[in-house]
Amino acid sequence: MTIRLISVLILAALALPAQGPFAAKKRSTSTTSTQQHPNVDKLQADLAALLSKSQVTPAMKQQLANDLMAMCDGATKPSQASVQKLADDLSAALADKKISQRELAKLTADLQAVLNSANISMDEFTAVVNDAKTILTASGVSKADVQMIVADLQAIGAELKKHVPSTTAPAASAPARKFPRK
Asked: Is residue 59 in a domain?
């Protein structure tokens, strides 16, 4: 069974385009929930609207926060306060910036991955946050603003991980069982 699973995983990895370690994760995130497509489109439109404004209104910030919350798919969701902080920092940082449509789509996918990161590995989470950081930096967002947004993303990730029950740790009082090899 294990060899079969490994074979399937290797074949699946070979079938994916070579776009870095997260090509498979981002692809599965975008295809697993078709009801999220309108939410992705709304979030991307919100971010695009911020880019063309030099002044961001409180209503725009609230709409961004609402659309970020709508991106949360699983049972474990970040707090409204942490999402609002991300929305506030994103809106301030992105106002009047230039980001290509492709980068905007990648940033939206990164935000979606962070907001649904409760069950992804720390390596995957770190790569998603680093991708968002790279996009923001390349788009002319100040170093201080990038650091604030990265801190917001990391806080959301930590919040989500804190609420996921751990099933990997064995009970402390249970002795390890040895199984005979076949």
From this structure: yes
Residue type, 65: A
Contact between 110 and 79 under an 8 Å Cβ cutoff? The reply is: no
pTM: 0.71
Residue 14 included in any domain: no
**Distance, CA of 2 to CA of 155 (rounded, Å):** 36
Structure tokens belonging to residue 102: 């492709």
Count of structural domains, the chain: 1
Question: Percentage of the chain with pLDDT > 90?
Answer: 48
As a whole number of Å, the end-to-end CA separation of the chain is 14
What would the pLDDT profile of 49-90 be if each residue is shown by its tens digit? 888 777 889 999 999 999 999 999 888 999 999 999 999 999
From residue 82, alpha-carbon distances to 65, 92, 159 in Å are 10, 16, 9
Report CA 119 to chain centroid distance, whole Å. 11
92: left (phi over 0), alpha (psi -120 to 50) or beta: alpha
